[in-house]
Amino acid sequence: MTRDSSQQPPVFKGKVQDTGTTFAAPADQSLFASMRQAGIDWPVSCRNGTCRTCIGRLVEGQVAYDIPWPGLSLEEKRDGYCLPCIARPMGDIVIQRT
Ligand code: FES
């Protein structure tokens, strides 16, 4: 994690497990936006947490959502599934394609 003195949100480390590709993951933007900035090709459609096109599984780390229950069941969340189009990292993460 990198934090500077100008009160910028923390920037965590992200990694796509399947390819080993790494990316910067600022706490204030979605994982999808961060992956896209890094040139990572990740499926996306609605970008609002309903269609599940972007679904991935967190191998490490945790994410937060701006709305309480995006399009995932409680069981899926427990199993580490997340929707990168609306998920913000809470620390370093490793994500896997599903
Ligand atoms: S792109 Fe539709 S849920 Fe993420």
UniProtKB/TrEMBL annotation:
Pfam families, alphabetized: Fer2
Residue ranges the record marks as coiled coil: none
Signal peptide (residue range): none
Keyword Protein biosynthesis: no
Listed cofactors: [2Fe-2S] cluster
Matches recorded under InterPro entries: 2Fe-2S_ferredoxin-like_sf, 2Fe-2S_ferredoxin-type, Beta-grasp_dom_sf
GO MF annotation list: 2 iron, 2 sulfur cluster binding; metal ion binding
Keyword set, alphabetical order: 2Fe-2S, Electron transport, Iron, Iron-sulfur, Metal-binding, Transport
Gene3D superfamilies referenced in this protein's UniProt entry, alphabetically: 3.10.20.30
Domain 2Fe-2S ferredoxin-type stretches: 10-98
Family: Belongs to the 2Fe2S plant-type ferredoxin family.
UniProt name for this protein: 2Fe-2S iron-sulfur cluster binding domain-containing protein
Species the sequence originates in: Malikia spinosa
Upper classification of the organism: Bacteria, Pseudomonadati, Pseudomonadota, Betaproteobacteria, Burkholderiales
